[in-house]
Amino acid sequence: MENKLDVFHKGNLIATVIKLDNIEEGLTFYTHDDANIQFATWNYEEGKELEPHFHNTFDRNATITQEAVLVLKGKISCELYDKKGKFISSHILETNHVMIQYSEVHKYTMLEKSQVLEFKNGPYFGPEADRTRVDLNED
Questions:
Q1: How far is CA 94 from each of CA 61, 64, 79, 103, rounded to the nearest angstrom?
Q2: What is the pLDDT of residues 3-22, one digit of tens each?
Q3: Is 1.10.530 the CATH classification of the domain at 4-130?
Q4: DSSP three-state, residue 104
């Protein structure tokens, strides 16, 4: 997929950046099956029906919160760091760009007035239990 960039740190997939400008025909998953958060696009012709269904109950053990952000309007920067605050990479996200965070530290800066959707796996235990603040090594 040309519009997908996987970001690795020390051999581990930590994020995926997706540009939704040219969505492939059909159902396309951008995440690996073992990710706690799943992201896919649909691109179907008029009249296409997806059969009625529900999702089965499984014992799922998510030990980490993963999140995705979709920039609806605007421009933001996402900087990635390791858990000790050491810089890994920076990515500019604009309208119709998605960033999926699997692990490590992320910092967002609004580069212009922006509207963003955020998705996470749950349940949500509140900001104090859910996240750890990190001092960045900006030298």
A1: 33, 27, 14, 22
A2: 899 999 999 999 999 999 88
A3: no
A4: coil
